[in-house]
Predict the structure.
Amino acid sequence: MCSLPVPREPLCRVAVTGGTHGNEMSGIYLARHWLQAPEDLQRPSFSATPVLANPAAAAACRRYVDRDLNRTFTSAFLTARASPDDPYEVTRAQELNQLLGPKASGQAFDFILDLHNTTANMGTCLIVDNAHNVFAMHLCHHLQLQHPELSCRVFLYQQQGEESYAVHSVAKNGIGLELGPQPQGVLRADLFSQMRALVAAALDFIELFNQGTDFPAFEAEAYRIAGTVDFPRAKDGDLAGTVHPQLQDRDFEPLQPGAPVFQMFSGEDVLYEGESTVSPVFINEAAYYEKGIAFIQTEKLTFSVPALPSLTPAPTPLP
Amino acid sequence: MCSLPVPREPLCRVAVTGGTHGNEMSGIYLARHWLQAPEDLQRPSFSATPVLANPAAAAACRRYVDRDLNRTFTSAFLTARASPDDPYEVTRAQELNQLLGPKASGQAFDFILDLHNTTANMGTCLIVDNAHNVFAMHLCHHLQLQHPELSCRVFLYQQQGEESYAVHSVAKNGIGLELGPQPQGVLRADLFSQMRALVAAALDFIELFNQGTDFPAFEAEAYRIAGTVDFPRAKDGDLAGTVHPQLQDRDFEPLQPGAPVFQMFSGEDVLYEGESTVSPVFINEAAYYEKGIAFIQTEKLTFSVPALPSLTPAPTPLP
């Protein structure tokens, strides 16, 4: 993985996308609210653009209509010739790529904040592609400092050699905010307020950067994806058990070899057979049943993030 | 409302229906498990029949395909002439009426236990049509005594003059089990085990009754439906706010006049303007957004339930 170069210009084209998944309600209602009342997204040096990313899925209160939009921003989908038979989300990904990209081009937006909810007990999770993304890691650090009460954790999701596929990959940079637990189709006031406050703090960070603030190096802690674990399944592929009560709701806590991970319908426990302690996340997330994921294994890391140098101030205009 | 006569014969035809709503996972996986392994449902005097009530919705992990099955057991739907254009759930209600009814006939099943989950913080809720259903009230009392750790509450849902519409209304009698909170599409091991234990205790009660046990009168507490309250909405009908953090998760707790019930996206609080204290239930249930229900108001009542007389023992067969 290469280190993403830190920006050398102010970030003026910023988008906040909600409803990338149509049943994750915090982002849907924030995006709808900001489309009516955009003042919250205005800062002296820029105004962020609110986007309801998957309006058809949001109208149906489903994750997606034809396929997961947030897995559709790969080059193959974005460059395919359009056809009337295209899945809805392929068409929509191409539209968003026109609006916010094109991906990997100089015209792309500078930054996307993409808003999500999970049914898992993830608290406040900040989703970054990898730890070499110095600007994103500083943004996360700022959110942690501004909102210590939320215990924001950083999840590094990109696997070695994997093409980026998420909506924020059409911009030059971006992160996801993942707040839970919240059932699909439910709008909790507490998570709505938290997400609103986090977006405000993220825009404040971009404003500080744009104004020429420099941010010193720091020691970071993050959880890097190490693999996925499926539910126990019967011969027909259906569930034969579910997440063990001793693992349920324990996202980010250490899981040690020999600890129970599943409870079978027949009554037995299934134990974790890995050789090292991991930190499971997205435990029993509703949307991942169809993906064959009962939880995602991560390894907890600490590392040094270098300073984020301040922008060279633009020449002061003559009076 | 008339008092339902107490049974004078053993209850031998008993069904347990799961997946009446296709994204309420405890009942779906219990029904699927029992269809493979029916021993749990066997008692000396009867064997309960497991039924996956809405298989198409369960396969799609949605509440329903075309319309809410659990509002489709009215005379108008059950007696309508079948047509190929019928909504799936109308066809399925007619099938279930053939299998478990016909409704209001002598051939109908004696009892249906219908299994549900809610996203609301309802704990263990036992759903009975009305307090004059002496047999059902005794069954609920038995569950309360057998499982004091679950704080089982009784919700009386039938409103004056309303035709019965739920799946258990096709049998001569029945109740619903409503366990929460559980997100749609998620199977929590704790609620799965609780529901399994409650079904076992309910079948044990029917067995005791069938064996000639008499059950003394008792004082009951229950929550009777008194109305519904919608979310605050904008002119276009979309939400303008959501359930207030001070009301969220407080199902069955007293709500006093003047207490906050909603938090608007604009920031203000909406206060409860009723004249008397009520007990809200199904607070912020995902499935009720489309029904225009943010919560259901109930009044908490106590009343006397008369003894349930024992069955006259059948004449002992001659050797």
